Amino acid sequence: MDIRLINVNKDYRSIDDQFLRSLEGVNIDINYQNYVSFVGPSGSGKSTLLNIITGVLRPTSGDVYWGKTSLSKASDVDVSSIRRSKFGIVFQDARFINEMTVEENILLPLVITSTDIRQKKKYYQTLLERMNIVKLRNRFPEELSGGEKKKVAIVRALINNPEILVADEPTSNLDETSAREVFNIFSNLNRLGLTIVIATHDERFGAYCNETYWMSHGKIDKFTSRSSS
Amino acid sequence: MALTEERVNVLQFLNNLFWLNMKKLRGSFFWRLILVAINFGMFYAALSGYENRILLLFFGITSLSNVLMMYIRTGAKVDSTSLLRSMGASRTFVLVDNLIEIMLEFLIAAVIAIALLPFFKTAHWLFRMAGWEFLAILVFSPIFSSVLLARIERQHRKI
What we know:
heterodimer, A: alpha/beta, Rossmann fold, four-stranded antiparallel sheet, 28% strand, globular, B: mainly alpha, 82% helix, 0% strand, elongated
């Protein structure tokens, strides 16, 4: 599934009822099986952009297309349905339900998609082994380090076999080694055919991606592509 | 891409929701214990042969406590609901999930009370109260969940 953003603007309302423009005139094409990053400082609109790409937020104006589906015309039921079947999302703060174990948190997307959990156990086991986190399965989220949380969040994002993996600041709060490990995981997943879309403030990691959009103040300043450079 | 209508297997949907709530049961055990105690207290009173007036008063207080606790608990689920929504959970999923979660304690309390039924005299009060409580949960839980969903959506529009 290709993703296209056409002239997307996003305004937020502040506590004192002022409108703040978070994204301005954003035009983007994300092709199937590509590896794309949005690089920019904190507050440049990256997270808002990812939320709009995944349909968590709707743009104030402009439109988003998932394949031929226009998000401005799709109902909440359709948007939710496509999101849970096509997207795997790694949140910036690696959100979990704290009263559930790592295993249960990973299986959560299967509950949402009404999938038989027993049928996915083998795939789940394979993912844990690939990420080298088998020993973490019965722990609770607060017992994990930052790097372990990211890996668990990646496995959770992959459990539904998504077409597109979206990750917001996947290396935040990680040491250099763990950060490189996370990006190597993404590169490998992309080689296996997954579309990867990430937002990061760390310019070094733009080098891992095929296409990079450089952002500041809610706008795309520059676009670089490996094939064109 | 044409929108593919997901064929939701209702049994699998409910089965998974039950699985999820059995797992959550462990975490919010304290809250659930209080709710079981409140409901069981109500059933106990119903079965102890008090005057109708006192029973009505007691019923009113426990019903109000149940609704209040339902409101507080549902309102405290901003983070987990936001997470579920971001992962693609529909509004219906959230409504049914919260309803099942709340209904579980009520059913546990009801089962305990019914098991003790032979020891008490005014069994008709038990069924009357249980029926009203059941209806209250059925009506108020979706309302509180809708308020929660609206709150999360409002948060997304603000900064």
